[in-house]
Design goal:
about 55 residues; mainly alpha; 2 helices
Length: about 55
């Protein structure tokens, strides 16, 4: 099965379409209430560095 057939089956079965990295907006990302917590200073710095590195900040 080639890549296009595989993508077509995914779209057909799961009703989702692939998107490129640049199309994801932060308001589309949902975090369950049970997972919300205050980030430690270290984790916040690592996250900020990663976002800057990938031009997402």
């Amino acid at each position: 099965m080639n890549q296009f057939d595989r993508q077509a089956r995914i779209i057909e079965n799961l009703r989702v379409k692939p998107i490129s990295h640049g199309q994801v907006h932060t308001f589309q990302i949902a975090i369950p209430e049970s997972r919300t917590e205050e980030l430690s200073y270290g984790r916040r710095e690592v996250l900020e560095t990663s976002l800057i590195k990938h031009n997402s900040a």
